[in-house]
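Please, structure for the following, as tokens.
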Amino acid sequence: MVPVRLEPRAARVITSRVTPAGVSEVPRPRALVVGAGVMGAHHARVLAELPTHFSLVGVVDVRGDARESLVASFGGSAFDEADVDDALRCADHVVVATPIEAHARIAIRALEAGKSVLVEKPLAASARDASALVATAAAYAGSGARLFVGHSERFNPVVRALVRALDGEQLRAISLTRRGPASRRDARAHGVLLNLGVHDLDLVAYLCASPCDVVAVSGVRCQANGSPGSSDQADVALVTRSGVRARVRVDRLAARWTRKLTVQTESAVFEADLLGRTLTRAGRDGVPTYIALGDEEPLRAQTLAVAHALEGYASPEIATGDDGARAVHLAEEAEAQIRGVLSREVRWIA
């Protein structure tokens, strides 16, 4: 079900450790984390926990206490954002975990310097910026530039088990629901689809191995809680180019977190709880059977997939720049319809 993307092995500067006997071990990229917030801290931790794959060389942030704290915990050097160019010269691989508005600016500088880059989701604050990132990665590919996107939901043990279970199945419909309270990190400067829904918009295309288009939308925005143009609830109907119908519901006004996924095939219905980590399959008899899951942390699994991609191996799970750009384009299109920007009238199709 999942397309394997084989990308050319990029030339890059790498470090290697030498054993006392003088035998070089497997080379490992020097990794730099830009952004010392919640996600930046998680990335720094995981990179430090994988010393045979990456060497964490530094953390960049405008806040001195934040970057110094991560360096004290996980190693490397602390850099002010004003010194990001100096930091980039020390690195081969860059993780961009800044606020959304800074994604494109930081990632483009890293790509132009010939670095491999993983940008936390969403890839950028706008479809235009996302396209610019993809174009920059292509333009500097000869210098070693690579672009990945942190759609870590692909590495959720439930999703990984579902992908295996769907092998050979004919998909008919997908429904995803993501609800929860707005976090302090979510200033609501962007709509709920860009902040949260991109995970699910990406999952639709990923599970169906096919791009998708917006069919219809509905949504709610609370103007008292942020930008007048930002939606807080969204309901999006899509259809993939392969004919699978999908529905994505996202809500950041709910009291408790819920993340559900239902997949209907020609012969079965799969019910998944992405938060509670359960997956069942019910055949034509309607009796659900639980499917065994792995237990690896999604961010760790994603980081390993990036490492393997940089080593030149096929990585079917890691989201590429093109994948991330498509999710941002879909989110922007749906948000535009919710705001009533498009001239055509939008109705749900029964």
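The chain is about 30% helix and 25% strand. The domain at 153-303+311-318+326-338 is CATH 3.30.360.10 (Dihydrodipicolinate Reductase; domain 2).
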